[in-house]
C-alpha cells in the first residue's frame, strides 16, 4: 500500500498540478517518494524563498495555483516572505511543508528544524492545516483547493508531520468539486450605469484573466479604463485604455470628472492610488465596486457593493446595460497625454527609464516582463501599456519583496513554455536571490535577465535625498556581472543606458537564459 507522502502527490496530480517547486530535505523524503514516476514535474530551486516566488510566477501566468514543497523550520520560514507577496497580490499558492513528529510538537526537545509552533508563524499570513492522520489527506487537499478558489485568492499552507508521511494510506477519492461564486443582484448597479453620462472604470488585479469581458463592457459603456499595475496588458493599445497609475494627477482628474465610477477587482492600495503619500484622491464613495472578497468590500464606502467574480459580474452587466456614446476615447486620450507629460515633470523618465522598458516591448513583442523593485519598474508602474494580457507583473507595489524577480520569472517561463520571459531587476535585488538563475539554466528556460546596474539601492537613495536625509547604506558593492554570468553559464552582454544599444542586444538570437547588464550612471 502507498504512503501518505505518495498519496499526497497523487492527490495534487488529480487536482491538475503539473509542477512542484521544491528543495528536498530529510523531512520531506517520503513526499519525494511520491514524485518518483509521477506526472508532476519537480523543479529544484536554490532557496525556499525562491521556491515560493517560482510558485507565485507560475500561478500568475497559468491561472492555476502554484505549489511549493519545503522542509519544516527554516524551510517554511524562508518561504514566508514570498507567501506575504502572494497574499498582498491575491496569488493562489499552496505551500506544503514538513513538521516534526506529532509527539514532539511544542515540547522544545531540540529536534532538527524544530519550531515552538510552526503553524502559529504561518497563520498571520494565510490559512494553515495539519494532516494528522492518513485518513485526512483527501479532506485537507479538498479544503486547500477550495480555499484558494473561494473568495480572495492567496497562499494556503499544509504541514505534514514526519511520522505521518510514511503511514499507509488508502487510495484517495476523486477531488471534490470546486465552489462557484454566485452572481449578485445587479439591479442597482445597472440603474446607476444607465443613468450615468460619463463612466470611468478602475481595473485592478482581480480583473486579470477577463480581458474579453473588460474590453466588451468598456466599449458598451464608452468608458475609459484606468489600470492599476496588476491589470496592465489587458487592453493594450485600446482607445479606451489609460495605463497610468491613479497616483498621478491626470487619471485622478479623469476620475473626478466622471459621474459614475465602476471599480473592478481593486483594493485601492496606497502603492497604486497614492504612491507619493500626498492625499487628494477624488471622492469615489458613490462608486459601484466589484470584488470577490466581502472583507475587502467593507473597507471602502461604495454606492453599490457587488461581491462576486469579476468576469461573471462584467458578463452580467454587459447583458443588461445599454450602449453609450460618451466621448470615452477622447477622454482617455486626454488622460494618457496629460499623464505622460506629468511623468516628465516628475523627472521619473530621466535618464530614460521608461524608454528602456518600452524598448524591451518593441524588441521582444509578446514577452512576459517579470519585475523586481528597481528604477525602471517604478517608472513603468506609473505609466506603461504592455502588449500581453497578464504579461506585466512585479513586486514593486503592495508588499514589495526585493529578490522576487529571478524565481518568479522561472515560474512564469514554466507556465508559458512558448513565450519569452524577461526578468528586469536591479543590481541590489539580484543579490537577494542570485541562485535562482541556476534553476533557469538547469531547466533551459528562455529567460532574459536584464540587470539595471546603478551600483546602489538607487530608489532608496533618491528617497533619502528627497527627505533631506544623509544617504546611508545605499551603496552596496554590486556583483561583477560578466564573471557572475559566466559562473552561471549565461551568455552576457553589457550596454549603456541607451535604447538602441539595448534593442540590439535583445534582438540577438538565444535559446536558453541570458544576462544583459544595463550600466546606469549614479
TrEMBL record:
Recorded GO molecular functions are: acetolactate synthase activity; flavin adenine dinucleotide binding; magnesium ion binding; thiamine pyrophosphate binding
Q: Which Pfam families does the record cross-reference, listed alphabetically?
A: TPP_enzyme_C (PF02775), TPP_enzyme_M (PF00205), TPP_enzyme_N (PF02776)
Q: Which biological process terms from the Gene Ontology are attached to this UniProt entry?
A: isoleucine biosynthetic process; L-valine biosynthetic process
Q: Where is the Thiamine pyrophosphate enzyme central domain?
A: 188-316
Q: Where is the Thiamine pyrophosphate enzyme TPP-binding domain?
A: 378-518
Family matches, as CDD domains: TPP_enzymes, TPP_PYR_POX_like
What keywords tag this UniProt record?
Thiamine pyrophosphate
Q: Where is the Thiamine pyrophosphate enzyme N-terminal TPP-binding domain?
A: 3-121
| InterPro entries linked to this entry | DHS-like_NAD/FAD-binding_dom, THDP-binding, Thiamin_PyroP_enz_cen_dom, Thiamin_PyroP_enz_TPP-bd_dom, TPP_enz, TPP_enzyme_TPP-bd
Key word Glycosyltransferase present in the record?
no
Tell me which GO cellular component terms the UniProt record holds.
acetolactate synthase complex
What SUPFAM superfamilies does its record include?
Answer: DHS-like NAD/FAD-binding domain, Thiamin diphosphate-binding fold (THDP-binding)
Q: Where are the transmembrane segments?
A: none
Cell membrane is among the record's keywords: no
The text of the family note is: Belongs to the TPP enzyme family.
Full protein name? 5-guanidino-2-oxopentanoate decarboxylase
Organism source for this protein?
Cypionkella aquatica
